[in-house]
């Protein structure tokens, strides 16, 4: 099943069922918002799925053309957003960029708590105050869980994963190492994220949902130029590990979103990267210094994902960086 | 004005106006929930204040006795919770406890993003999985802001502070240094917080609201024994600094809560502490090793604050630690 939230003038928007090929949409009958659907998932999932099947058969009377520019993030605001850093090749490069000492092999996932009171819409301009802060994108996958009890084990965790999403975790690279060195994590370096328009149930990925990981390339274009297509499978910890880690000492409410961290593969020289900081890290390794500047006002970033047969999965994040006014 | 949220079977409860002496309550007419009041503060504040004045004059027809055991946290869940660490004497001791190197004098506030999807009710039992995790309380003050734009300066920040609250920031001390060393901040070491029943507008503190700080002692009792009464004034950064720091790269939505960090004074040997970890730090300094164990199941903690004339301010956090089950 595929779901999106379309603008209706309210912060939470209006939940829609989206056809598998992302061409049509219909207002969900079983729930008016994504949060309401997640709060009552077991009650509404049968009706939502039936409506989705009907839409795919062109049998849905209320169907309209799906315009991704009318979409908010699938969950426009959430009670909790926790972001992992599960790709080791990304973490290793970040250590170089930030001048951190190489850490021992991690036995627990890395995770920080991020701002969740808004996720920018997938095609909206994103405001920043200064390019001096080092504006960067971070392409990620994420999962949205239903109610997950404190103490949930890794083995149990997957069953609470309801939806998969695609995220751009906006980052300010000049501020990040300063905050990281405090040990307190990031506030100023991590403004709100963006999400691609469509959230999908794991079955929509078919065999590409594997070991609680997304075995698909994340295509990243910066100013129209291909920047990377790293595969989401290469997580040192799967989303099951991340959910269990998050739930160690807290219940997770429905709609908690948990991110993978920047998608990265060890063959980054061939496959490219999902953030500029990683490319700069490669340049530091190969050339002795970073050559690629961070984003400028007016720059665009586009991120999308396709199944091997060409079916679009989440729609596209397609955004422009603008000066906050 | 004083406000509290009473239980009504919903997550957000029912907003009530509370008399200055905390003896009576009346359902707020201008807004049904605290979040709704904060979302429309400028529209509702006159009516709420008039109702508060009426309640204090015993002229409120719907007045009932105020039972603190019926209160949820004033904001039972929030879109954002950011916690500072603004008391230097606390930070210095924590560096000793965590084996951190002494940092240079800070030029920016320390702040982390915490879980905000629930704040435990002020008198509810608080569940933890294991005493091996090092269960500790942290007595704090906090502010709740209305809509605060990205880029708000320190000079402008105070005008967005709508309410002051009293917080217990539950912490798991065995997990905290492990997470802190990652630089990502705390997830497992910081389960949900609790709040005292009553949120107050700054004018309720009179001259004790000074330089965007709470110039009052925070009384802490552990298992009925006095543990500390540190004064809230001694912040290296005031709440105006903390709000401006938080708003550097993000708009703050109404209902964003910003905490002071553990209230601590340099004369902690005389005045006591607001968390066990600080007492253990003092013992490490004075005795060479910590002597005081962290909390056990069945332990209680009580925290309250009074004006110099004896008027209770926020009501009491009065909780018991229990095994999650």
Automatic annotation (TrEMBL), chains A, B:
Residues 83-321 form the Fumarylacetoacetase-like C-terminal domain. Residues 1-77 form the Fumarylacetoacetase N-terminal domain. Keywords: Hydrolase. GO terms for molecular function: hydrolase activity. SUPFAM superfamilies: FAH (SSF56529). The keyword Lipid biosynthesis does not apply. Pfam families: FAA_hydro_N_2 (PF18288), FAA_hydrolase (PF01557). Transmembrane segments: none annotated. InterPro entries: FAA_hydro_N, Fumarylacetoacetase-like_C, Fumarylacetoacetase_C_sf. This is Fumarylacetoacetate hydrolase family protein. The lineage of its organism: Bacteria, Pseudomonadati, Pseudomonadota, Alphaproteobacteria, Hyphomicrobiales.
